[in-house]
Amino acid sequence: xxxxxxxxxxxxxxxxxxxxxxxxxxxxxxxxxxxxxxxxxxxxxxxxxxxxxxxxxxxxxxxxxxxxxxxxxxxxxxxxxxxxxxxxxxxxxxxxxxxxxxxxxxxxxxxxxxxxxxxxxxxxxxxxxxxxxxxxxxxxxxxxxxxxxxxxxxxxxxxxxxxxxxxxxxxxxxxxxxxxxxxxxxxxxxxxxxxxxxxxxxxxxxxxxxxxxxxxxxxxxxxxxxxxxxxxxxxxxxxxxxxxxxxxxxxxxxxxxxxxxxxxxxxxxxxxxxxxxxxxxxxxxxxxxxxxxxxxxxxxxxxxxxxxxxxxxxxxxxxxxxxxxxxxxxxxxxxxxxxxxxxxxxxxxxxxxxxxxxxxxxxxxxxxxxxxxxxxxxxxxxxxxxxxxxxxxxxxxxxxxxxxxxxxxxxxxxxxxxxxxxxxxxxxxxxxxxxxxxxxxxxxxxxxxxxxxxxxxxxxxxxxxxxxxxxxxxxxxxxxxxxxxxx
Length: 487
Ligand SMILES: *[C@@H]1O[C@H](CO)[C@@H](O)[C@H](O)[C@H]1NC(C)=O
Ligand SMILES: *[C@@H]1O[C@H](CO)[C@@H](O)[C@H](O)[C@H]1NC(C)=O
Ligand SMILES: *[C@@H]1O[C@H](CO)[C@@H](O)[C@H](O)[C@H]1NC(C)=O
Ligand SMILES: *[C@@H]1O[C@H](CO)[C@@H](O)[C@H](O)[C@H]1NC(C)=O
Ligand SMILES: *[C@@H]1O[C@H](CO)[C@@H](O)[C@H](O)[C@H]1NC(C)=O
Ligand SMILES: *[C@@H]1O[C@H](CO)[C@@H](O)[C@H](O)[C@H]1NC(C)=O
Ligand SMILES: *[C@@H]1O[C@H](CO)[C@@H](O)[C@H](O)[C@H]1NC(C)=O
Ligand SMILES: *[C@@H]1O[C@H](CO)[C@@H](O)[C@H](O)[C@H]1NC(C)=O
Ligand SMILES: *[C@@H]1O[C@H](CO)[C@@H](O)[C@H](O)[C@H]1NC(C)=O
Ligand SMILES: *[C@@H]1O[C@H](CO)[C@@H](O)[C@H](O)[C@H]1NC(C)=O
Ligand SMILES: *[C@@H]1O[C@H](CO)[C@@H](O)[C@H](O)[C@H]1NC(C)=O
Hints:
This is Acid protease. Keywords: Hydrolase, Protease. It comes from Lindgomyces ingoldianus. By secondary structure, the protein is α+β, with helices and mostly antiparallel strands. The protein is 19% helix and 31% strand. The protein is built from 8 helices and 24 strands. The strands form 4 sheets. It has a 6-stranded mixed beta barrel. Strands 13, 14, 15, 18, 19 and 21 form a 6-stranded mixed sheet that branches. The protein is globular, with a radius of gyration of 23 Å. The chain starts with a helix and ends in a 22-residue tail after the last helix.
């Protein structure tokens, strides 16, 4: 037995060290925002992914626990589902009968999501998947076509379909590797805040095989994945501090037994899973109680997720300190919205459910995962980024935030075209990319202004939100990712 184990681990080590990653492969950037999707006239927030041929566009929610890419069938919501607000919760609908490329699998298919909460019935099969890259509202999307990929179509049940699964056995990451499209099993996420529950405006992004260097700032913090957890990205929390904006000097630690005498001693650090499967944070019972007593929060279920509600408005922030010192601050507008709803969930004293740093936490954090070495990185997210900077995330390497060069002189002198034309061949590709993005932004802004003047505000909003660019195969030139090349 011992020798078998040794043999096994030796093989694993061997195969890891001999894998050669091609880190010249550009990443695939898939944005997350609200848009028109197939099968409903309500805009949905999620990853811009189409399924079938012709493509039925969807807004898929990224899950760090699930592995499968799932869709809701057209009749899912009419078939006795228990999913609340079903018609606006599935990120679109997939009508299998309209896809010429769908092939149903035999019944012996084994789901990779055996641990998923909730039962359902549905079909599995193979179909085309279109990963759309769409940087600017006024420009077209380009697509990465993955044909014959395994998908799941839910027909009835209690689950929330419309998921792109980025769990430890992610099918979409595996497909991208098998087809030699991306450099390694790496993936980065900014979930954004443009969905209804968050009530914000900032959009998110997925980067398969890479990361968006323009989306985070400061040093990255490295953690090991814990693959025994459903959400393998797991950290330890050592402190949670409330800062009152009106009294910035008076920080209150929810771990402080002097402040909260119901605790006999300072609590130990606790393990929390990073998840997108729910919006509110789930913290240990006593910490939750301290939060409630400090801010006057009470149980509420306005949103069906047990988020606590304050009796009175509060303007302040909540800082979560991880055991390595990395501190993530939930700003006042996220901590308490205008209806006094907080992103902290009520917790039962006897609950044994895991603790979660969930979507509300990720609205402030950029997450970069390396499934080849089972490590991940967190960094402070830049909320309003001015440059989209997808970079290859080579397995085993450490992502670095993009440093904006001080080159506004270029812009001022109108040299952007020349730079893009490649005349300044020696200039770092980062500068080129920055200028390129700035140029695109400026063009977009000009177009926006024209539209505003011409059609008025309402028309402009429609124009921004409806994806109406027909041609993308082959990808339009503007999407040819020359600025993705590794520096
Ligand atoms: C690595 O990927 C790049 C971009 O896809 C490709 O041009 C190059 O040929 C690949 N190199 C190897 C050794 O496969
Ligand atoms: C929904 O459930 C009811 C009662 O169990 C049943 O009569 C009805 O046929 C079901 N509808 C569908 C579409 O499955
Ligand atoms: C969800 O459903 C509830 C009750 O049916 C309704 O009040 C609410 O407006 C719905 N939310 C959305 C976003 O449609
Ligand atoms: C996804 O795959 C991982 C690794 O195989 C597994 O541990 C996890 O339980 C799966 N997720 C679900 C929801 O079953
Ligand atoms: C699964 O769903 C049930 C019912 O919605 C819920 O009570 C339970 O906490 C969930 N479990 C997990 C692990 O999310
Ligand atoms: C409802 O669900 C059942 C069981 O999954 C499925 O066989 C049936 O086709 C579904 N009905 C509709 C109208 O989609
Ligand atoms: C599609 O995938 C299935 C399952 O992976 C495989 O059996 C089938 O041969 C593939 N078809 C094509 C045309 O590649
Ligand atoms: C506050 O958040 C709750 C839950 O997301 C939402 O129902 C409510 O509309 C929000 N209030 C405002 C004023 O945004
Ligand atoms: C997010 O995306 C939507 C839809 O494209 C757009 O209207 C909105 O302006 C974007 N928000 C930001 C902050 O860029
Ligand atoms: C209060 O906490 C915040 C967040 O951890 C920290 O940045 C700040 O320095 C603290 N202020 C004081 C006076 O301790
Ligand atoms: C799906 O999105 C693509 C890319 O923007 C677009 O070209 C296509 O027309 C969309 N499909 C539908 C049915 O809107």
